[in-house]
Write a structure and sequence with these properties.
single chain, 166 residues, alpha+beta, Ribosomal Protein S5, domain 2, 4 helices, 30% helix
Length: 166
């Protein structure tokens, strides 16, 4: 009798960005463990990235995924792109995020592409500056997306200032 396999469809987009084997040298030899970076998003403007470490790869991915879900936040997006140009910074890593016209696609590499897919951004131009450390690029991208302002933020600010001067 064949068992039915049920696939549970998660409401989140989940992507493993980076898995690394790290070792600790002890008296008896080397002890290996694994680290994983995971990006989680709903493809509708929310996303989070997480980091996990364990003795086995699947456990490290599970921990990173759990951490990413806890760290989710909303991103200010305008249709299929971001609202304005921004540079995200973390450590030595700098990530330039630039809005693009419809039909451009995601012009990004590796970690930043995963983040854009998780958020639901369809048209964007990006460039990683200075560093190529995957974890720092992820965090720089996260910081850049967190500091995006809503499209009507500037007009509200200007309007508020003109009201005060009258």
């Amino acid at each position: 009798m064949a068992r039915e396999r049920r696939e549970i469809k998660s409401e989140f987009f989940e992507k493993v960005v980076f898995v690394n084997r790290v070792s600790k040298v002890v008296k008896g030899g080397r002890k290996f463990s694994f680290t994983a970076s995971v990006v989680v998003g709903d493809e509708k403007g929310s996303f989070g990235c997480g980091y996990g470490k364990a003795k086995e790869v699947p456990e490290a991915i599970r921990k990173a995924s759990s951490s990413a879900k806890k760290a989710m936040f909303k991103v200010a997006i305008d249709g299929s792109t971001i609202t304005h140009q921004i540079i995200g910074k973390h450590g030595a890593a700098r990530v330039l995020l630039k809005p693009a016209k419809g039909g451009t696609g995601i012009i990004a590499g590796g970690a930043v592409r995963s983040v854009c897919e998780a958020v639901g951004i369809k048209d964007i131009l990006t460039k990683c500056l200075k560093s190529n450390n995957t974890l720092n690029i992820l965090k720089a991208c996260e910081q850049g997306l967190k500091s995006l302002k809503a499209k009507d933020y500037r007009s509200r600010n200007i309007k508020g200032k003109t009201d005060e001067t009258n």
